[in-house]
């Protein structure tokens, strides 16, 4: 028995990852619910590179998170990204 729903994790918060998931859905013929993790600066070491070193704050997002539901019936996305 094959899985009807795939849940691939990612840390790629760019919008381009949706097209990668669309291709995977068409190949697998399954619903895909990719989940992008969420992380703030406080989740990384103090010496981790950041976009704006002068604006450091534990509350700043390093990875914005988000998810999207992709249908095997060429309906992309079923639900737009949720952040």
Question: What is the element layout, followed by pairings?
Answer:
Elements lengths: L4 E2 L2 E2 L6 H12 L2 E2 L2 E6 L20 E9 L9 E4 L1
Parallel strand pairs: 1-3, 2-4
Antiparallel strand pairs: 4-5, 5-6
Structure report:
The chain has one domain (5-44, 56-82). By secondary structure, the chain is α/β, with parallel strands linked by helices. Strands 2-4-5-6 form a 4-stranded mixed sheet, with no helix packed on it. 14% of the residues lie in helices and 30% in strands. The model has no long low-confidence stretch (mean pLDDT 77). It has one helix at residues 17-28; strands at residues 5-6, 9-10, 31-32, 35-40, 61-69, 79-82.
Taking the sheet with the most strands, its summary is: 4 strands, mixed
State the distance separating the first and last CA atoms.
33 Å
Q: What would the average pLDDT be, to the nearest integer?
A: 77
Spatial ordering of strands, largest sheet: 2-4-5-6
Strand proportion: 25-35%
Estimate nothing, just give the exact number of structural domains. 1
Briefly summarize what is shown.
The chain is 14% helix and 30% strand.
Feature tags:
1 helix, two-stranded parallel ribbon, 6 strands, 4-stranded mixed β-sheet, alpha/beta, 83 residues
